[in-house]
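Lab notebook page, bench 4
Experiment: in silico fold of construct C2
Operator: M.H.
Input chain length: 626 residues
Purpose: comparison with the prior construct
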Amino acid sequence: MAAQAAPSDPGKTAIDFLEKVRLRRLDLTPGGDTALSPQTADGKKREIARRLDRMARDLGSDPLEVSAVKLDENFAAVLVRKIGGLDPSRLQVFPVALVKRGAEWSAAPLPASFENVGAGYATALRNRLQLLENWMLREQVVDLEKLREQSIKEMRRKIEASLPADELRNLDSKKVGERFLAACERGDLPAVLGFLGGLATKPPDDWPARLKAADLAVSAGPQVPRPWRILTSKEVARAVVHHEEEDGRGLISISCLDPAAATPRIQVVHFGLIKDGDPFWRIDPPTRFLQTGENPDDDAEDDLDSDLRDAFPKNWTATHSPKPQATAELARQALLAALRNGDFQSLLALSKLDESPETARKACIQAAQIWWTLHDPAAVRHAIPLAFQTDETTAVAICQLFSAREPKRLDARAIYFEKSPGGWLWTPEPTTATRGKFQQWVDSETRRWPDRWQQSLLGRCPVMDKNHAIRAPSKDDARKTVEAWLEATWRGDVGAALLHVARLDDPASRSTVLQNLGYETTDSRRGKETPSITGTYQGETWTAVGVRIEQDGKSRHPLYPVIQTDCGPRILIEIDLVAAGKRGRDFLNKAAFERLAKSSSAASELKTLFADHQTNIGNLPDKAAH
């Protein structure tokens, strides 16, 4: 959200200046993005850079809008508001001084100051600039106060729109607790604030802390720190497990299971409720919820809450209907889909949790552990079905958990299912009898798969041999294939990435493909910038796509060879080519070409395309090719 202004408008120039400051992409050289005078001393430039860095932190990521503009011939003063969120303490007003040279406006490098712009020393001019500077400093205070008053009124209006006072007045304490939890889950900040006291006749004494903490928690999105994470993250399963009320005071207890916790377990958090003279209930959160930043202390476990932790499976199931499947095979398919693409709550819905409270609690924790194994952003894993055995009431599937870090390792897991009255469900904590029934078969199958699971994973990758009639795909198709590959590896979606891969008819091909897939997926997820296409090179057999990848301040320039197969264009990912002048990289490129020559007579053509890629990289601007 930015102010709408004419191209030469000083307001737009001020907005553009602040956007570059917050992105730390401001060119501070004379003639760059500011009106900085060439006569500015180096020491002053360093001081200006430090002040702009502090301003970048203050700007944060909230939207900006122009509040007021004051003109004086070729000079201007602009006030820019930082808006967004419901916390008035986040609002700020930034004064920007501007100079017009020719037809263009340029921002002065320091806020509220025409210093270091080479304006001259004439007394009359200095007096005029002093008036503009004084106006900015004075109006900055006035406008910020006005902005905060408007924000308070707007906050009240938004709270009422999301949670009408009449509706809140008719809720009992249990409903208030349940509705508060639901508002946290969907990220409804106005409703959350309403339950925390935003509609009270007299706000609670710690209202600024409540407002700031809730605002930060909701605006943080997936990166929300603990303890708010256990209330707002979509990865966390939670359920109300206890409620009590007496004489205008109440208590509600919520059990939560966060699969991303260092040691997944069911946690219990207690919220007090009070009427405190108002006609409706107010949530009083524990003190740690009002402290900013990560709070590790909420991991402490209280033995007194053991019964509430045991109540979690039953209470969660009461508000989240289980999803049993008609057959064991359908249950296996649903489980694999949830493990690969679903959230943790969708996995719990496929789980059998109707045993004793202790067994059900262990089942929930087992479900959390396997879900996080496959969704931990620090590792890339993919569930591959290998074998399946079933009888009338129970079943077991053997799955390989492919790891991008250990692409050649077999990590086979036995996953059990049982038939319940409503249908088939996954059993994270199977009985001893169920395990014993299938133990011999599981052991036998596990011994058969170490040399076979790779073929299962790569079954949809077409194989190219010397007699394979291949032709170059179009440049557009090759580019789209590489872009889809890059996007899939960035997501860590192993299955999607392999849909864009072909491989050689070579005994070592399977291991090499998976090894390169592991490297590329791991590297892609560490990169902070989106890879960019640098060139597309077409021959008769190959169409090769060059890419620039930024990582840790350095650039890599791989070349992806793409061939046309009966399944469409595919990348030969095991031919690992990277443009570089280093001896080690040249050796690896040479080895890749030697390996390709054993399986394809078109290796020499790809060498020519790679040479074109090398030349193109050498001609790119320094920023792209450093």
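Observations: The chain has four domains: 10-154, 165-295+305-314, 321-456, 463-625. The longest helix spans residues 123-162.
Next step: discuss at group meeting.
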